[in-house]
Amino acid sequence: MREKGNILVISTDIPLKFEQVKKSLKENHNLLWTDFLVLCALSELEKSSYFIQTSDIIKYIGRNRGWVYNSVKRLKGKQLIGQEKPDRFNQPSEVWINGMGHSLLNRVFRSMRLNEIDMI
Predict the structure, then answer these.
(1) How far apart, in whole angstroms, are the C-alpha atoms of residue 29 and residue 50?
(2) Per-residue pLDDT tens for 41-84?
(3) Least C-beta-crowded within 10 Å: which of 6, 40, 46, 68?
């Protein structure tokens, strides 16, 4: 894993769709509102692999820009729910924020069949 600031690395086997995001949120009631906004931004992407600046996600979100920016800064480097780092870093269906497990989003992305999401 290379350090590149706020770059989100996404590798999926299917495009995310907004309806999938909403369905997953209904099944995971303890997701944060910030997670929902970021998921909405990600659901608009069309290709299967991306290198996305955090600022691009914030730009998409628009009027919630400042609030989301601060929320993303708070999320970076913090483990929101107890979850140990897996033995293999590139374990499928894992979500990492600066190398730490983010189990709230893990459940959503796993249900969407995402292979790997890293913030590096």
Answers:
(1) 27
(2) 454 443 333 333 344 443 443 334 444 444 444 444 433 333 33
(3) 46
